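Bug #77: duplicate submission created two jobs. Keeping one. Sequence:
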Amino acid sequence: MATEPTPQNLGNPVLRHLLATRPPFLLVSVVACGIGWSGTHVSGNSVDMVLALLTLIAAVLVHAGVNVLNDYYDAVNGTDENNTQRIYPFTGGSRFIQNGIFSPQHCLKFGLALIAVAVLIGMGLAVQGRPGLWLIGAVGLLLGWAYSAPPLSLNSRGLGEISVALGFGALIPVGADYVQRGVFDWQTLMLGVPYALLVTNILFIAQFPDREADAGAGKNHWVVRLGPRAARWVYVVLALAAYEGVMAMLLTSRLPFAASWSLLPGVFSFAAASILVRHAESPQRLAPAIVLTILAALGHGVALILSLTV
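Kept job's structure:
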């Protein structure tokens, strides 16, 4: 298990700010962009690397900013402070506020600054003949902010999973493809659906260790609402739906046979499901399942990208 950050072991200010964004989780946005560019490639178009780099930077900055803002709002409502069953670094936030590295106000300003830079990049792309980015950006920013922030607090209302699925399965892949081609494509959206479900399971399983602290702070997501014994089956359903979606696209020739490789990470998903089904009420035993869930989502996304572009 990783050691939580402290002011003593993070003296470098650049490293502090980088780690506060939870960099490993930002890979989810990188892969989502890759799925979008896969859609560009299979449509017969080439990927402009300058546009791709700008898109990637904007997507990662928004994701990083949302992570930092989530830490701020979870500090304000007391969720992270009261989380005694967290599994660091996967659940319970970055701990930068709770361990005295940053103040809540610093995190608020830092998160907003990251998002502001992303907005500037997005605006630059939008005025270069990509007007649809105004809509994508507006919806993405709304979902990112409202996920944690009152008065909407989407995750507290059982809408966090939908927000994550829309962001990583629709907005980022479709947006990355749109920047390249200037058109919205249903095929790219379909490519992102299985990935969206697998990424949603990352959020979902992470809520099991945080359940008691979240419930105490009024964050009534579905693990809180259903309880661990019932909620564990939601994870199984989401995983099955993801791989069934891939199978459906293969059988209808919407994906080439090579994309069958993207089914292999299902081994990780169902190994994680097995652990969760057995230990849903024992949060400290779920760390391996969380790791496997992350590997499943990233593995599927990378395999899909390679199968469509190589």
